[in-house]
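pinned: reference chain
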Amino acid sequence: MDAFFASVEQSANPLLRGKPVLVGGHSLTRGVVTTASYEARPYGIKAGMSLGEARRLCPHAIIVPADSGKYVETSQVIFSKLRQYTPLVEVFSIDEAFLDVTATFRHFFKTPEDLALHLKSWVTKQFRITMSVGIASNKLLAKLASDVRKPNGLFRIHHERISSFLEKLPVETLCGIGPSLKEHLHGMGVRTCGELGRFSEHLLFERFGVIGPVLKNMGMGIDHAPVMPADAPDITKSMGHSYTLLEDIFELRDVKKYLLWLAERVGRRLRRENFRGCVVHLWIRYGDRSSFVRQRACHYDLDDGQDIYHEALKIFGGSGSVWKEKGVRALGVSVSGLRQSGHELWLLEEYEKHRRLRKSLDAINDRFGEFTVKPASINFKGDDKAESDVIDLFGSGK
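pinned: its structure tokens
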């Protein structure tokens, strides 16, 4: 779908149609642009940009708070429609999916293009939004083709034209090649897909390890990954939470509060979904929008917020003192290296007590709401009254 969140908002509110619309986060000044309508993009506004910067570029842009329920509902209806034409539908994101129609499209239409046109027409008629479709022999190329004629596009890469299509295409247009990998490839003199496809596999392996041969295949338009339908086994790779602060913070005690808050949320989610992990990741965005990203491998599996917090704090200590000058704008904590939790029996009585206590606290928070019971050190601005109420409550003997 094209500019999905913004398009859904424009469809729901006729007053937004034809105007620059920004779907944003929790704060009009500190949040980020989730989606910008195509009317806003000529001003240089992109997803991930701060709303403050976007408003400077386009002062008359209309900022709309994100409504995830509305987007999920629209997405589910569209994906249900896609599954009428093939059972092989892989949901790639809330507004994007891969379809393998190799064995099914002839039951409905003469060509894949006819099927694509039918789906595009249905989506526009049903929701007043547009959809771009790419057709190719594998997922890598279909993804590329879907971006060629956005918005409302339709493009097919025929097998015999793959080489010519990729020859002068920048490597960063390939799904999976981000800014860091792009710079490494540029440093090796590889700037186009054609050059990547012709580059020495041996040198790529020496530089990137097992991903080297995969990169070479990508440069040649080769992708053997199958379309994985929704009922295929789901492999969760990581779980995490991040938060953009309403104002930059410069005090260590404040950083610790937010780290503990995020770590507790991650721990709760891990336990809820019956996972444990052995690698803790920390992401920091400073006040000047530079970033710090590190990870730490542990010798044991974690699903407890306190343990995750202490590991994240060790990583934070390695960030130096640069944050004291720049301030911390956003934080993120996640855990990877996941495996399904078993029903281990703790031999040490202390650990078994802790496990039972944590289970009881989870039950309370599940019933009465997130952080009904929380570590006393998680006390943000605005919490003072609530804390004093609790103290008075206990002081009264109730």
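why pinned: The CA atoms of residues 321 and 327 lie 10 Å apart. The two ends are 56 Å apart (CA to CA).
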